[in-house]
Design goal:
alpha+beta, three-stranded antiparallel sheet, 114 residues, Alpha-Beta Plaits
Length: 114
């Protein structure tokens, strides 16, 4: 089962996307879409739902790489793997909406302000 909005995959028996609150479909949606680009990385488990809700409210399609593993590693926002990278998710949006999405997320998190 797949969400037609965010493309998340769910196991059989689940009927609605918990993030988008839309009915799931049996086939992965075909997004003859433009490339997705990374706009934000976070390992903050409390911030990720906020960022996702900002994008969803603006109806900007997105996916989060690494989100599915966030519950497997209870190390907190500063946890790192041996090569120095942090655990966490990478938020990606369609290339044409990247600047808009970055601005929304910066505004929501007060980044870029002095």
């Amino acid at each position: 089962m797949f969400c037609p909005e965010c493309d998340a995959e769910y196991r059989e028996g689940i009927t609605e996307c918990v993030d988008c609150e839309v009915p799931l479909v049996p086939e992965r949606p075909s997004h003859d879409a433009e490339p997705m680009v990374a706009i934000r990385r976070t390992s903050d488990a409390a911030l990720l739902p906020v960022l996702k809700s900002v994008l969803a409210a603006a109806e900007i399609p997105f996916d989060v790489q690494g989100d599915e593993a966030s519950g497997l590693f209870p190390f907190g926002p500063t946890a790192m793997v041996p090569d120095g990278r942090r655990f966490g998710g990478v938020i990606r949006v369609p290339e044409s909406r990247a600047e808009e999405a970055k601005a929304l997320l910066d505004s929501a998190t007060n980044e870029g302000e002095d």
